[in-house]
Amino acid sequence: EGKLRDYQKEGLTWLSFLAEFENGGILADDMGLGKTIQILAFLLGRQKKTKLPSLVVAPKSLAFNWMDEAAKFAPGLKVIRYSGSDRVKLLKEMEGVDLVVTTYGTIRTDIEKLEEFEFDVAIIDEAQAIKNAHSQSAQAVKRIRARHRLALTGTPIENSINDLLSILEFTNPGLLHRTKDKDVSKDTTAVLARMLKPFMLRRKI
């Protein structure tokens, strides 16, 4: 429901390109450019291709926004929110839905339960939440089993290039073949930018 703007259509084409070649990616458009809508359109396109559910991990404050946006723009998707004290009963429903929305707090607590499931697409929203590769959130989301991995963030780099590299370890495991404690020098930043260009799309307002 609704109409994609031209740049959102380009984003959708890019997401489909990544999926075709079995690569993950980072959609790093500025806030307000409709990253959620582009992902929902992408998931609608995959709905008939797989029986697996997809998973969104978002900050608690945005979980309800995902539910509202899905109901408004993609009513054809069956969506459940996996959070709250009674969430365990929803595990039995996961294989019959299109999209599961959960939070970083829940994924940290329940990753042993959730990694038993295979998802079609795993999406992390506000992906700067895993900028520290050693954090519990980063370690938990990297254990998710999914055919495709996407990250959404308007701020892919907050402190250093290592913020971006931690996110890439989720979207494209092994792409950089780097050790966890290795920092990237300024001399290699330009080389990294060229190498990573196919795997990150950023548009500014």
Description:
With 205 residues, the chain is of the alpha/beta class. It contains seven helices and seven strands; from the N terminus they run αβαβαββαβαβααβ. It has helices at 6-20, 35-46, 60-73, 104-114, 136-141, 161-171, 189-196, and strands spanning 25-27, 54-58, 79-81, 99-103, 118-124, 145-152, 200-201. A seven-stranded parallel sheet has the order 3-4-2-5-6-1-7, with helices on both faces. β5 (118-124), α5 (136-141) and β6 form a beta-alpha-beta unit. α1 crosses α2 and α2 crosses α3. The radius of gyration is 16 Å and the shape is globular.
Quick overview:
With 205 residues, this protein is an alpha/beta fold.
Task: Measure the end-to-end span.
Answer: 24 Å
Estimated helix fraction: 25-40%
Main β sheet profile = 7 strands, parallel
Mean of all residue-level pLDDT scores? 90
Strand content: 15-25%
With strands numbered from the N-terminus, the spatial order across the biggest sheet is 3-4-2-5-6-1-7
The total strand number stands at 7
Principal-axis shape: globular
Question: Which structural category fits the helices and strands?
Answer: alpha/beta
Rg calc: 16 Å
- Total number of helices: 7
SSE string, helices as H and strands as E: HEHEHEEHEHEHHE
Contiguous uncertain segments of 5+ residues: none
Would you spell out the secondary-structure blueprint of this structure?
Blueprint: H1 6-20, E1 25-27, H2 35-46, E2 54-58, H3 60-73, E3 79-81, E4 99-103, H4 104-114, E5 118-124, H5 136-141, E6 145-152, H6 161-171, H7 189-196, E7 200-201
Parallel strand pairs: 1-6, 1-7, 2-4, 2-5, 3-4, 5-6
